[in-house]
Design goal:
CATH topology: Alpha-D-Glucose-1,6-Bisphosphate, Chain A, domain 4
Number of strands: 12
Distance between the termini: 48 Å
CATH architecture: 2-Layer Sandwich
Largest sheet: 9 strands, antiparallel
Strand order of the largest sheet: 1-2-3-4-5-12-11-10-9
Radius of gyration: 17 Å
Number of domains: 1
Strand content: 35-45%
C-alpha cells in the first residue's frame, strides 16, 4: 500500500486519514474511516508506583484529574467502572480488561464490530522517573455515523497528562 503524503493528511486504501505529530505532553490524533485514535505521552519526575497509585485509586481520581467528574467501582482486573466526565452527560461503563501493576492497564467498552472504545495506559521507566503513555482508540462499523458527534479528545488528553504529571510530582 502506498500513501501520498500531503502534510497532515495522507491517503490510502481506507480513505483520507489524518496524522498529527506529538510533542511531550501534547496529545495527537489519527483518524480514518473506521478507526480514530488519540494519544498522549509525557515524562513524569516520579516513580511508576506513585503514578500507578494515582491512576488506580477511583476515590482520589477526580481530585487530581480535571477531565474526570467521578469514577465508581474499584479499578481492578475484570471490574466494570462507572465514569462521568465534564465534556459529556453520558455515563461511561468501561471494563478493566488488563491490569499489570505499575506497567499497563486497559479499559474497554462497546461491542465489536459495531463500535468499541479501548483506552490503554502504559508506564515505562524513564531515568529516575516515568514515561506515561495513554492511547484511546475508537473503531467499528458505526464510527463513520457517529464520529462527528465525538468531542475533540486532543485537548482533554493533553490536560489529563498535565494533571497527572502535576499530581505525581507534587507528592513524591
Amino acid at each position: 500500500m502506498s500513501f501520498a503524503d500531503t502534510g497532515r493528511r495522507w491517503f490510502g486504501a481506507s480513505g483520507c486519514q489524518e496524522r498529527f505529530d506529538m510533542a511531550d505532553g501534547q496529545a495527537s490524533a489519527e483518524k480514518s474511516t473506521f478507526k480514530q485514535s488519540v494519544k498522549v505521552s509525557n515524562e513524569i519526575a516520579a516513580p511508576r508506583e506513585r503514578v500507578w497509585a494515582l491512576l488506580t485509586d477511583a476515590e482520589v481520581f477526580p481530585r487530581w484529574n480535571s477531565t474526570v467528574t467521578s469514577i465508581e467501582g474499584p479499578i481492578a482486573l475484570g471490574r466494570k467502572l462507572a465514569v462521568r466526565v465534564p465534556i459529556s452527560p453520558r455515563l461511561f461503563k468501561p471494563k478493566v480488561s488488563v491490569f499489570e501493576p505499575s506497567r499497563r492497564m486497559v479499559w474497554q467498552d462497546g461491542a465489536a464490530p459495531m463500535f468499541r472504545g479501548v483506552r490503554v495506559y502504559e508506564l515505562e521507566p524513564a531515568g529516575a522517573g516515568t514515561r506515561f503513555v495513554m492511547t484511546e482508540t475508537f473503531s467499528g462499523l458505526m464510527l463513520p455515523m457517529i464520529a462527528a458527534s465525538l468531542p475533540d479528545f486532543v485537548p482533554v488528553f493533553t490536560r489529563y497528562a498535565a494533571d497527572l504529571k502535576r499530581a505525581a510530582e507534587a507528592n513524591p
